[in-house]
Every structure is written in C-alpha cells, then in structure tokens.
Amino acid sequence: MRVSKTIRDYVTRTVNEAYSARIGELLEEEKRDVNEQEKILRDRFEQIKAAALADAEKAVTAMPKGFTLRYPTRIDFGTPYVENRALAKKINFWDEHRRNKIEEILVRMELGGTKAELDEILKELGVVEGE
User: Which residue ranges make up each domain of the chain?
Assistant: First the structure.
C-alpha cells in the first residue's frame, strides 16, 4: 500500500516534534560552548595585538635619526572560527537518527498498516508516549 502525503506529513511532523527538543538542547549547548571559546580567542588576540604594537613602537623609537619605519597601527586577526566537533557529531547522530525513524515508519506503513497500527509503531519506536 502506498503511503499518502497526509500520512507522510503526519509521521514527519510527529517524529520531528519528538526529536526537536533533544536536537535543540544540543544546538544550544554548542552555541554556548562556541561563544565561550570565541571570547577566549578574542581576548588572546587582543593581547597579541597589543604586544605586537608595543614592539613596533619600540622599533620606531630605536631607529637612528634620518631613518623612517612604517609600521601597522591596526592588526586584525579576523573572526576566530571555533567548532565543537564532539557536539557536532552528537547533533548529526540525532539528526540522522530522526531521519531514519521517519523512513522506517514510512516503510512499515507502506507494507500495510492502519491508523491504530501507525500509533502503535510510533509508541514502539519511542517517538510518542503511550496514552
């Protein structure tokens, strides 16, 4: 039996709702971790920048008379890129797990099933709580 678009949408919506909280928590954790790491990097870059400008200032004052030295007054390190690979793997795992659940349910429905069986499949797979 072919699964209709309505059933496909229902299964997708139900499974997505079940996994959205879990994936959302991981995304928030990743965002906090990345922001913290970027702040640490920005602070360190500022320290390096201040030291580099101080060294350039010393070099200019140590130059003999008659010589000029042009040095940068602005040092830019760009935006630091931080990635928490462990969290990214967890997020990818749960996202793939969610997609697999949807596919598994749809395949089981195509092999034959009613609304009651669909609800039972969702309960069995741990997607929806029992009533």
Answer: 5-124
